Amino acid sequence: MARSKAETLAWLRQIAGELATATLKRLEDELPWYREMPPGRRSSVGLVAQAGIRSFIGWYEDPASTPWIAADVFGAAPRELLRSVSLQQTLQLIRATVEVVEERVSSTSDQSLREPILLYSREIAFAAADVYARAAEARGLWDARLEALVVDSILSGEADDALPSRIAALGWHGHGEVAVIVGFTPRLLDVDQVRRTARHLAADVLIGVQGNRLVLVIGRADPVRSWPVGVEPVPRPEDVEPAPEPAGDDAPPTSFLEIAKGLEDAFGPGPVVLGDAVPDLVAASRSARAALAGFAVARAVRHAPRPVEADDLLPERALAGDPLARSTLVARIFTPLKDHPGPELLGTLWAYLDNGRSLEATARELFVHPNTVRYRLKRVTELLGWDPTGAREAMVLHAALILGAISEPQTRRRSPAEPGPASRSRSGRAGGAP
Q: What PANTHER family does the record point to (predicted)?
């Protein structure tokens, strides 16, 4: 015999505790992730299940209360529960609760509750999806602001003690060396596509947009991401793509230039400059300074490759006043030549460049055979890695020699007419003698 609605409500309120107990037992028996939870979180999940049953009773009494379902059910759980229980697990929780209620209702002759249970389970499922969607959206906006803050700190070089924790909060899974790429921002920037491309290159990336400049901070990463135990965050779009096959243990890591070439399409028309590699993300400001300085002068190089390494623009950067480029040229070129045993390499390179890269003119100036000049230039190439016989590399070497000579400490030279210390001493004694 069918009950009236008032009788059904009274019956539901009477068995609410029994339903909650049966639901928790069902969760314990059927859901391994629930059994493995710490007691505090299991208690929170139980509160959600009990709130769901009470909310169903309230909804059955007044179906117009649908908009409050999410607040009624999920408001009983602490905020950190959303970060430890995934949407899939939440739906499993809802299914287990609905099955317990359905089984209890089926044991009676009154089947008038079956349709309300189906309607309510649909509403609660949509409400759960809405809660997680809002949480994911809020997390995405927060991540974007934090990512912009981290990239800005790297570009400005104002790294502080909070930078490592901010990087960790972003889920950075790069390891080892890091490099910075700078180029123009495209008209339409697809951030998700950039992250997917980086992931297929076994790299992680931080993205920063500063006006018309697009800045990418890249680091090599393991193909498979490992999350902390018990934490299953909402995956980013790029994380649902199939991961690349891991390379063998003996395979060399992908160079940053190859990664930059793979990410080239993310930038708009114009130069794309890759900074030099640095040991870790905290030291990325040095790579950023090099990339920004190279980006500022890249238009001065005709037919520059895309992407171009910042170290390939050292002369232009030095002319533009970049102190890092000047010190790099002196340290890599002038100092090794100056410290090399014997002055013939430095003197030969000076003469060769001053004589318009002519072997014969250099040989006449140094009073040696042209083959001797050719041999010394080969030793310069072996020592420095730059070939003086190439037009572009000769320019780099010439700029380094000029900067090195300017940076050398000056010594005051005595004019021929000026007496030396000994002469002044003798004249002083002569003038003072009685």
A: CARBOHYDRATE DIACID REGULATOR, PUCR FAMILY TRANSCRIPTIONAL REGULATOR
